[in-house]
Protein: YkgJ family cysteine cluster protein
Organism: Helicobacter didelphidarum
Amino acid sequence: MESHKAHRDSQHLTFPCTSCGECCKHITHIEALSDFDMGNGICKFLDMHTNQCLIYETRPEICKIDTMYENYFRATYTKKRFYTLNANACNLMQEKANIHSQYRVHIQ
């Protein structure tokens, strides 16, 4: 019974992005985003003053963690595990960029 509850609860997770913008500054080796790269690894649709995506509502699928999970990784990972892997990547990029720890992503 408890494992069923844990599974059900994990399906209601949403990725807790902290809008630091760091993932949008490291797109050089992402083929699906090659047309978005300004030539320096930064997405041309990232507002550098606000760290907000200028095309958020129509951004590519690869920029949507929930969509990527549902369409490509659901059979491989639990949602919580997929989020944890993404959170670890986010936090590593933030640490390397010396972004304040208040922006770290935590998965409950």
Notes: The beta strands are 46-47, 52-53. Residues 18-101 form one domain. The two ends are 20 Å apart (CA to CA).
